[in-house]
Specification:
Number of strands: 8
Number of helices: 5
Structural class: alpha+beta
Strand order of the largest sheet: 1-2-3-4-5-6-8-7
Mean pLDDT: 92
Radius of gyration: 16 Å
Strand content: 25-35%
Shape: globular
Order of helices and strands: EEHHEEEHEHEEH
Low-confidence stretches: none
Helix content: 25-40%
Largest sheet: 8 strands, mixed
Distance between the termini: 32 Å
């Protein structure tokens, strides 16, 4: 399987598979409160069997070509991940998302990993439009969308009932030509 280095700080992007259930559960338990501030990701994984079921659901999505899950490891420890949701190669549209435990924050891990995912989706799979949807109060997540050069398309007001509150969701996107232009500018400025 792959392990993609995300820099000189020991960060790697790797597949997150059902056999990682124990490690995944330990990671979720370390970050459950933090992760759960705005999203319910992993909330149903409360023991090894349910963690394995969560990971198997994403493995099945990968097999069906409708989504996938990728872990972020920092110095050998799982600290978060990035994922494809609603992956539709036939229409050229997908949604991406992320989660982190506190030990992974403030390092640019999600931004670096998401660049790998966007390059793959656009250049290898022919995806034309990538969406990022996050709660309006989730500033770190929204900042990733900004750093990736995504455009805020709008706000779906009070659409997300979570923990007794109806949250606004911001919808961001990047189109393939915009992504390619941004990557070309980055490459040019690094010369």
């Amino acid at each position: 399987m792959y392990a993609i280095s995300l820099g000189d700080d020991g960060a790697e992007l790797r597949p997150l598979e059902p056999w990682h259930a124990e490690e995944f559960l330990a990671h979720l338990n370390r970050g459950r409160e933090f992760i759960g501030q705005f999203i319910s990701f992993g909330s149903q994984a409360t023991d090894v069997d349910s963690a394995r079921e969560t990971l198997q659901r994403y493995a099945d999505m990968r097999a069906a070509d409708t989504g996938s899950l990728h872990g972020l490891w920092l110095n050998g420890q799982l600290v978060g991940g990035v994922l494809f949701l609603n992956f539709h190669a036939d229409t050229g549209n997908c949604e991406v998302g992320c989660w982190l435990e506190p030990a992974g924050t403030g390092r640019g891990l999600v931004t670096r990993a998401m660049r790998v995912l966007l390059d793959f989706a656009i250049e290898q799979r022919g995806i034309h439009r990538v969406e990022w949807i996050a709660a309006a109060g989730n500033t770190p997540s929204l900042n990733v969308a900004r750093r990736l050069g995504m455009t805020l398309e709008g706000v779906r007001r009070e659409t997300h009932p979570y923990r007794g509150v109806r949250h606004d969701l911001e919808v961001w996107s990047v189109l393939a030509p915009e992504w390619r232009d941004a990557r070309a500018r980055t490459a040019h400025s690094q010369r």
